[in-house]
Each structure stands twice: as structure tokens, then as C-alpha cells.
Amino acid sequence: MIPEDLRYTAEHEWVVGDGAGKVRVGITHFAQDALGDIVYVQLPDEGAVVAAGESLGEIESTKSVSEIYAPLSGTVAARNEALGDTPEVINTDPYGAGWLVEITPDDPAAVDGLLSAGAYRELIES
């Protein structure tokens, strides 16, 4: 279950552009499956500046706490406030209602440098 229209990171985040200069970020089905039942999500505030490859928050599950890494450098434009009350939606809908943040990237073309669906599939199957 790897949507073809998204871009991915080696740390199991997905990215999709909205066509208006922002990108939406979440974690992949593979990541949520490995984490198990998600019970808490800590996300950055709107307006926070994030750097590619650096931590932008945490996801806590019944098994562990994992860092969420920024796939691109930029500014947080929105965060999924619904996850405060229902973090488990990441388990049931990681590519939809379970999105984490929207970022206005410093360099929108950087999305093209992320992994394609095929490259991400190879990564998790190896």
C-alpha cells in the first residue's frame, strides 16, 4: 500500500504538494504498522521553521516513541489539530485524515529529490 502520487523519505515520511506552494506531510503505512497503536503525537507550532532531516516532532505508540523528521526545510503552515484528540487515526488512515503537518518549503523543487513510490518500495523490501 504505497500511493504512487506521493514522494517519500528513507525515514518513512510521505510528502504531497497541494499545487499552491505547500506540502502535506505524514508517515507511511509501513511506519504506522511498525509503531503499533499510536496514542500521542507531538507536532510543531504553526510558524515554526524546520530543517530537512531534523526532528519536527514525536509519535508515541504503545510500543515506543519515534521521532518525525522534516522531509524538507521550510515553515510549518498548518498542523493536524485533530490528532490531539484522535492520534489513532494515523493507524487507520495514514495517507488521509492522519496527515501531520503542512510545510511551506524554502525550495519547492526539493520535493522532486525525495524518493519515488518505486524507490521507497525497494527500500522497505530490502
Number of domains: 1
Gyration radius, rounded: 13 Å
Backbone structural class: alpha+beta
Could you state the order of secondary-structure elements as H and E?
Answer: EEEHEEEEEHEH
Can you walk through the features of this model?
- The structure is a single chain.
- With 126 residues, this protein is α+β, with helices and mostly antiparallel strands.
- The protein has one domain: RNA polymerase II/Efflux pump adaptor protein, barrel-sandwich hybrid domain (OB fold (Dihydrolipoamide Acetyltransferase, E2P)).
- It contains three helices and nine strands; from the N terminus they run βββαβββββαβα.
- It has helices at 29-35, 89-92, 117-125; strands at residues 7-8, 13-17, 23-27, 38-42, 49-50, 55-61, 65-69, 74-79, 101-105.
- A six-stranded antiparallel beta sheet has the order 1-2-3-9-8-5. Strands 4-6-7 form a three-stranded antiparallel beta sheet.
- Strand 1 (7-8) and strand 2 (13-17) form a beta hairpin.
- The longest helix is centred in the C-terminal third of the chain and has 9 residues, at 117-125.
- The protein is globular and about 35 Å long.
- The mean pLDDT is 96.
What order do the helices and strands come in, and which of them pair?
Blueprint lengths: L6 E2 L4 E5 L5 E5 L1 H7 L2 E5 L6 E2 L4 E7 L3 E5 L4 E6 L9 H4 L8 E5 L11 H9 L1
Antiparallel strand pairs: 1-2, 2-3, 3-9, 4-6, 5-8, 6-7, 8-9
